[in-house]
Structures are given as C-alpha cells and as structure tokens.
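Checklist before submission:
- one chain only
- standard amino acids only
- sequence pasted in full

Submission:
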Amino acid sequence: MIDQIRKPVEKEFRLYEAAFDEAVKTDNVLLGNILKYIKSTKGKELRPILVLLTASLFGKIGSDTIQSAVSLELLHTASLMHDDVVDETYQRRSKYSVNALWNNKISILVGDYYLSKSAHISAQMKNRRVTPLLAQLGCDLADGELLQLTNENKLQIDEPVYLDVIKKKTAKTFAFCTQAGAISADANELEEEQLRLFGEYLGMVFQMKDDIFDYFDSGDIGKPTGNDLKEGKMTLPLIFALKNAVKNDAKPILNMIRNKDYSVENLKNMSQFVLDRGGIQYAEKRMQDYKQLAIQSLSGFQDSSGKKALLNCLDFAMMRSK
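Returned file contents:
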C-alpha cells in the first residue's frame, strides 16, 4: 500500500533519498558502517512521504520541501535511537537496534550526529519558518518522553493524560510533516492550519494502532508483544479496561503492574483482560473518531492524486499489521 501512496511523488521521493544520503555522508569508518546498517533497517518512510504529498497539493515540490523531509527524517531517526537507550529496547522493526549491536554510548552519539545534521539542513532552507518548528518538535518529543516516564510508576492514568503523551511523542511529528510541506509550497494560513491538523489526527490514529499491537501475538509487528506493559506504559486499551472493570476484576491486574510481574502468563492474562473488557474496541472507536476529523480537515482541498494518497495514509495507519 505504501508504494501506491508514494506513487504521486515517486520522482521527488528519489530526490529526497539522494539528499538524505548526501546529508549523512562521512569519512568516519565506524560511523559509516553504523549509518549503512541504519539505512538497511529503515522503515516505510511515511513521514517524508507526507511532506512531499502535502506540497504536491499545491503543485510546488521544491528544494525546501526536500530539505524539510530530510531534516525531519534525521530528527525522527535520532529520537528513535535515543528512545531505544531510554527504554532499554534492543529490537526495532524486527531487527537489532543500534544500541544492541554496538552500545548505548555509540547509539547516543550517532543520534546526536543525526540531530546536528537535521539542524544544519533546516538552517539552509530559504523559508526560515521551518527551522523553529523543527526545534520545537525536538522539544515536544523530549517533553512527551519525560511525561511518559513520569507516568510509569502510576498504577492508573486517565485518557486525557494518555492523549497528551501520544500527541507529543507521535502526532506532532506527523503534524510537522504536513505543516512543513504546506509552508514549503507557499500555502496560505488557513490551508497550512488544516494540513497541520490532518497530520496531527493521522498521528493519533497511527499511535493508537501501535498501542493495539501490544496486545496480540505476532512475529510481524517489529517489537516484542507486551513491550509497552513491561515498560510500564499505560496505553488506551488498558486504561479503558481498568476504568470499566469491576474493582475485584481489576485488582489482580493492578497488582501485576505494581509488582512489575510481567511473566509470559501474566502478560497473556492482562491481554485477555483488555480484550474481554472492550479495550481494543474502544481504542478502535477512538481511531475512527480521529480518522473522521482528519478527513474533514482535507475537505476544503481539490481532489487530486496527492489528496487521495493522503487519505489512503489514514487507511494504511488503521489497517497495517506492523
């Protein structure tokens, strides 16, 4: 499905790939080997595709669009490497993470390299509005991670707190993609805001789907099942199940969380608890709510291959299996 989504900007995507490779070129042998490995494990690159598709709505994909996509992907990749260290995660997209193959020090330093390259690329743009937006995004990502860490020792959190975390950790990244794409194509203020909202709503859908994955056994997801639970992350399916369960039914689950007793059997029981109490169905309903908001935010734009591809991103976010 990603190939179809990318099709309207296939030519420009190749330009993005070339620009990204040029941005991280290095003579350092160790760094070069690590960067080569990172490239071999890259995902579907939906975020840079969003930047390009958004600009395509206005028929203007120029150098600022390409540089916005590159700087965003550099920042995003850096945040993933840092997150893997913070979360003590050793797999990403079903492959070993940088900190697993090398060590935490190297993962942090390579992440810093990507961050610096991101700032360097954004500083070269003709439109100076993107650079402060990118810097703010970096702050939001760190803020969201700290907020999540603060919540790890809490037995229960409410839905608004959860939504605030995923907005900062995920949705604002998607919002930057669509807003930066709009800015690079000289969109007016209203168009820019509607596209920013589209990205934010898409990001909310994307993260909720990620959180649902944690409750199913699958070798294709790209991260261990139960990983969020093991890290003490209270996601929407569990928040809803705990809130709507009878007190005596919730008590064993709360004890597991309190004692951090995440044995295979306990994780299985917790997943069943979430399923039985409608946690997955509720999360899917909230995904639909955000999907409709995203569709509405694009209603003022003329039909085009780019708009169709953006709408297909919503279907991809909801239906993907990893």
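Reviewer check: The longest strand covers residues 91-92.
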